Task: inverse folding
């Protein structure tokens, strides 16, 4: 008996929804629904919260200025806890229940990979500004746009800086990388640079995720006489490597991925973390000379509480910049906001500037990856800041 | 009204349904589950799909841990093996679903045999620790065997398709999973009412005494491991088709622990309990998700989302403390009170 | 040769910590036949609490340690009273699952209160260290070695000579008889848990000083598991020795063979030990009577 009742109720509900004024998914006369999947709990929440907060800042700013062509933006956040199955489930829920128009938070690389079939099937305009991986755009999906270089490109450019600007081409190079996809990508960049600049690659050290003790690895590196260490750690690993290096009295130049461009890494490394390099594609939060950063910090100070401000890091800037790109495309579509229009506008972007947060963003026919540009930063342990030490290096 | 459960022949003893009432309710359940996708929305159906797939694996684990008493934390490893087998066969070798599912189960069963060998010597906690070690080693092996398993990049599996019909939507996939789950439950119930099941029970109670009574303990312990890991392998294969992206990260140790907690919450040893435990635990997680996401609030309180994990752990602890027989225990007690009221017994 | 010495020394340095954590496992198993899967999480909780204390008041390292010892004792007593005592009389496996549930809870609580960022434990010995020829050891690592020796010795003395220690040994071997002899078994349990928590707290502070704090610190507890299996689940002394051995094995295998063997070598040891000599090097064999 129960299911007849349920059936009748559902039919009534569906009928009522159908009469709602939704011409296009997630777009009504006064509202745009966007979705974001982020790891808001667990250890990866370091990234997820920073990203989500930035999206909220963007949302508040856009709405305060009257919305996008008169439509207020509402963002639905789903916590996936960094689990691919839950990311996919969260996306399904957002599509079903919230009827989102587009997706601007895509969590990690594996999580996006799980969501990709559904994104492609429904043609949801998606902007990935969190974790870049070549299988997100190779082969390209029509509605999935990726911004930012792969770790391969990032590290290759970073090492290039060390060779060209720091004259470290003659050093003995070593790589520490994690035993997963992320590590493989870093290794790709490292080997690229080794080949391009003819570097002396003496050691490649693989480690298991979550490893805390790197004494054996650093001893090996010391025995091999390493002078330049490329680090593919996630967060804490960079700091531990730096401390081990200092403890073993090793004089090395240290280059980390953009995951080392985080305040906790500096804090954990302490004095050992002075002067290490990090390759990234967004500037540091303290670089107020960059107009985009200044604008973001001003907005953040307006809309966020003090505790929330403490959670911000480079993932906030990447998120905010990505939202700017997406917002621009939506704006260009004017009153007739459809998914196909946004996809077309995104595709048409040529050298779109985000106030210096990213390099110029360019997409194209069949091109869904905008690597923008890489910049190398140097850690200033005393001030707990990062300084921009290189020029913007455009990535092909 | 029945005055008791009276079984007068061997046939009645081992029959699937003890009385007409059970049969009627089971038929009703079947009808409801067949009709469910028609009233549920898409994402709820996909949620239910996920739960049913986990239930397939947990029913198998229940045979091992609940019925035979061999504590195993190896569930995650067998799920991973099944998922990877199915993903590799369907993505790299284009094999059809009806081959990949059993293949996933069989390969996992092979690993199950290996993991079962220590069980012949070890018991209780020591066995649990061994299976734990095995899970971690299996995941490491999967990562290292890059040539077959694509290492850390993971594998993207194609859409599930059976006999030419592509099960494109969650709702159509639902029916396939329902069929597999029904077969799994039937298989488990059948095993339990056969001599193998009775042997399992004997082993659980006291395996040395069982051997003294003529039960070939070594063989049956291995059976238990092989069967349960077959179930887990099939569940893993279904997962590969549902999430369509297979990656070692999805199969961490936590999954094994969750699986054991589902059996405990449902009621150790009972097939129905295993299924109910799965739906209860996963349903609780979803409800918590809903409750906390609607608690928008100031961003600083995002830490309050961690409460989900806290409540999950607390549920396990509370169940163990107050209802060690799980939900089935509560149900049995309720049934007894209902039948015997106003008498106590 | 230098390389070997360096690897060995750093192996011993981490092994000492494994030994400390292992002693905690062994003590609880010895007294209550329960494997406390929450040992790593308790360690994490106490080191985070130490972080809060160290951030608010500047304390010398030993001062901080003393405060932590007191704190951990209280934490251990509370956990035992609230979670473990009600499970008395039920199957051992149920209690083990309770510790697993407890572990999940503590992990969530830690991230809830302190956030997910990696943190540095501010102590006054921080990065300082001493050089012995080619070997450089952090002060904290030297302290760790000293503390392990101290803990092993005091545990031995406690179990051998003190009334509570002897009572604990009696409870471990025959609980019902111990009850009949007038031993307050519930007190024994509480003390066992309190001491195990104290040892966990010490190892947590040491780990925090050497490697920093992080929401994934509990996995170090899992890494110490092979130590207690190798040593024998109910041998406190065995766990300490085996911990050092595991640390050495991990580092040497990583240093000479590599390829992420460091993580796996411990679990392979578990398998080998359980297959060949399930009770470990120093454990007492369980005789099952039908």
Result:
């Amino acid at each position: 008996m129960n299911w007849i009742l349920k059936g009748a109720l559902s039919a009534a509900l569906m009928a009522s929804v159908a009469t709602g004024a939704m011409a296009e998914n997630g777009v009504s006369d006064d509202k745009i629904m966007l979705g974001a999947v982020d790891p808001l709990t667990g250890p990866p929440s370091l990234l997820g919260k920073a990203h989500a907060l930035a999206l909220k800042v963007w949302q508040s700013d856009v709405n305060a200025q009257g919305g996008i062509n008169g439509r207020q933006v509402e963002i639905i956040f789903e916590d996936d806890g960094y689990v691919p199955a839950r990311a996919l489930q969260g996306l399904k829920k957002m599509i079903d229940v919230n009827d989102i128009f587009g997706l601007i938070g895509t969590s990690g690389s594996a999580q996006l990979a799980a969501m990709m079939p559904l994104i492609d099937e429904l043609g949801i305009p998606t902007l990935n500004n969190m974790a870049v991986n070549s299988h997100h755009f190779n082969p390209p999906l029509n509605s999935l746009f990726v911004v930012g270089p792969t770790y391969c490109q990032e590290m290759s450019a970073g090492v290039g800086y060390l060779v060209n600007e720091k004259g470290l081409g003659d050093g003995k190079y070593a790589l520490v990388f994690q035993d997963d996809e992320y590590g493989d990508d870093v290794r790709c960049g490292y080997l690229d640079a080794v080949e391009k600049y003819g570097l002396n690659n003496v050691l490649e050290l693989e480690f298991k995720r979550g490893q805390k003790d790197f004494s054996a690895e650093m001893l090996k590196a010391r025995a091999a006489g390493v002078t330049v260490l490329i680090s593919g750690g996630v967060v804490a690993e960079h700091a531990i490597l730096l401390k081990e290096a200092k403890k073993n009295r090793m004089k090395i130049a240290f280059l980390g991925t953009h995951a080392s461009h985080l305040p906790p890494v500096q804090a954990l490394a302490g004095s050992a973390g002075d002067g290490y390099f990090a390759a990234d594609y967004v500037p540091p939060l303290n670089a107020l000379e960059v107009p985009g950063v200044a604008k973001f910090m001003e907005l953040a100070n307006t809309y966020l509480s003090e505790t929330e401000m403490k959670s911000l890091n480079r993932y906030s800037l990447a998120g905010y910049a990505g939202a700017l790109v997406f917002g621009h495309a939506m704006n260009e579509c004017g009153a007739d906001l459809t998914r196909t229009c946004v996809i077309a506008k995104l595709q048409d972007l040529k050298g779109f500037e985000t106030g210096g947060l990213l390099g110029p963003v360019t997409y194209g026919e069949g091109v869904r990856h905008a690597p923008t540009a890489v910049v190398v930063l140097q850690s200033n342990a005393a001030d707990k800041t990062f300084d921009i030490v290189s020029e913007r290096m455009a990535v092909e | 009204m029945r005055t008791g459960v009276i079984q007068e022949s061997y046939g009645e003893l081992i029959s699937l349904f003890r009385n007409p009432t059970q049969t009627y309710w089971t038929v009703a359940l079947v009808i409801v589950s067949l009709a469910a996708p028609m009233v549920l929305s898409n994402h709820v159906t996909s949620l239910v799909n996920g739960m049913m797939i986990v239930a397939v694996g947990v029913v198998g684990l229940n045979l091992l841990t609940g019925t035979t008493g061999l504590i195993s934390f190896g569930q995650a490893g067998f799920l991973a093996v099944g998922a990877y087998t199915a993903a590799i066969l369907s993505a790299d070798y284009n094999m059809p679903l009806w081959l990949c599912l059993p293949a996933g189960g069989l390969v996992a069963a092979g690993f199950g045999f290996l993991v079962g060998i220590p069980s012949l010597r070890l018991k209780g906690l020591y066995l649990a620790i061994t299976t734990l070690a095995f899970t971690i080693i299996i995941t490491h092996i999967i990562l290292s065997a890059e040539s077959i398993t694509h290492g850390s990049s993971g594998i993207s599996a194609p859409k599930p398709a059976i006999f030419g019909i592509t099960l494109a939507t969650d709702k159509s996939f639902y029916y396939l999973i329902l069929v597999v789950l029904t077969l799994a439950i039937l298989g488990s119930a059948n095993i339990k009412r056969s001599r193998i099941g009775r042997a399992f029970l004997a082993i659980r109670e006291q395996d040395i005494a069982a051997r003294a009574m003529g039960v070939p303990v070594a063989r049956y312990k291995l059976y238990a491991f092989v069967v349960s890991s077959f179930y887990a392998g099939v569940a893993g294969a279904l997962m590969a088709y549902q999430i369509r992206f297979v990656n070692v990260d999805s199969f961490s140790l936590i999954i094994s622990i969750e699986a054991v907690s589902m059996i405990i919450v449902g009621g150790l040893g009972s097939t129905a309990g295993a299924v109910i435990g799965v739906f209860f635990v996963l349903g609780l997680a979803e409800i918590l998700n809903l409750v906390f996401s609607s608690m928008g609030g100031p961003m600083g309180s995002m830490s309050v989302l961690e409460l989900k994990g806290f409540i999950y752990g607390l549920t396990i602890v509370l169940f163990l403390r107050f209802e060690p027989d799980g939900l089935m225990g509560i149900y049995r007690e309720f049934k007894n009170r209902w039948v015997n009221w106003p008498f106590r017994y | 040769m230098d390389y070997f010495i360096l690897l060995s020394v750093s192996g011993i340095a981490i092994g000492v910590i494994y030994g400390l954590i292992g002693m905690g496992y062994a003590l609880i198993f010895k007294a209550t036949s329960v494997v406390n899967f929450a040992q790593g999480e308790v360690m994490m909780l106490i080191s985070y609490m130490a972080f809060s204390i160290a951030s608010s008041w500047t304390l010398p390292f030993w001062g901080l340690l003393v405060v932590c010892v007191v704190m951990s004792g209280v934490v251990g007593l509370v956990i035992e009273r609230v979670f473990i005592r009600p499970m008395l009389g039920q199957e051992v496996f149920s209690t083990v699952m309770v510790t697993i549930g407890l572990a999940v809870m503590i992990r969530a609580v830690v991230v809830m209160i302190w956030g997910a960022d990696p943190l540095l434990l501010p102590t006054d010995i921080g990065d300082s260290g001493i050089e012995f020829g080619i070997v450089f050891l952090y002060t904290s690592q030297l302290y760790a070695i000293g503390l392990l020796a101290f803990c092993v010795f005091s545990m031995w003395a406690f179990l051998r000579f003190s009334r509570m220690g002897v009572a604990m040994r009696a409870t471990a071997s025959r609980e019902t008889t111990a009850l009949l002899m007038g031993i307050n078994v519930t007190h024994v349990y509480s003390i066992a848990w309190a001491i195990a928590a104290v040892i966990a707290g010490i190892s947590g502070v040491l780990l925090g000083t050497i490697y920093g704090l992080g929401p994934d610190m509990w996995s170090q507890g899992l890494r110490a598991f092979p130590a207690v299996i190798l040593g024998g689940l109910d041998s406190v002394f065995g766990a300490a020795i085996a911990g050092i051995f595991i640390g050495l094995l991990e580092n040497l295998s990583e240093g000479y063979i590599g390829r992420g063997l460091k993580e796996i070598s411990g679990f392979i040891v578990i398998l080998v030990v359980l297959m060949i000599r399930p009770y470990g090097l120093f454990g007492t064999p369980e005789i099952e009577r039908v």
